[in-house]
Amino acid sequence: MNRTYKIISLCCILFFVVSCNSLKFPENEFHYFTGKSEWTESEKNCCFSAISNLYSADSTFIIFRKAKIKSMGQAQPMIRTILKNRSNRIYIISVRDKKVNQNLCFETITDSAKTGLIGHEIVHVLDYKTQSFFEIISMGIKYSFCPKYKRRVEWITDSLTIANNMGYENLCFANYIYNSPFVSKRYLKKKKKYYMTPEDMISIIDILSQLRTKQDTMPDNQILH
Asked: CA-based angle 142:186:117, to the nearest 5?
């Protein structure tokens, strides 16, 4: 078992090294845009909108790239920076490039959906930021081989995205995936298995709205308690 664990860990490390090796981060900047296709100003603004809603995201080194990936978005640490101080690590958020599928890619979704997708991925990044190198490797293994763990991680991530003022945006992205004629049954099945459905999101948005309304109408001395 220990040998298998070591082999899997090594494979994960090699994967990150290969996938991130060609990327370079400019000095004195926190956010950098790169990839197969150019980023429009509107797309960059969607990323900055998500960043503004998440504490410490504006001071986290993130490379946003358009890439040939199977999913619509993914987040990962740059392995060669992972042993640095956590505030100095670099993270990569990839979105599906139009060269993969012109009908189902980052460019085809609405601006609100773009913000929701990026917000979700930044929440993953901020989670990585709290963990050590070995904790991230352990998380990657459990995420890959334990469906229940993967579902829990994605539900927590969706919940935090919603709680950080991006409930509508996250819902827009989910609605796009559930209603697009270009989404395969296999991909939709995966979304239903691991992520919140639009109905789940609406339920949480409503609950948070009620809690915030109740808090706003409570006297200060009750809120403190």
From this structure: 65
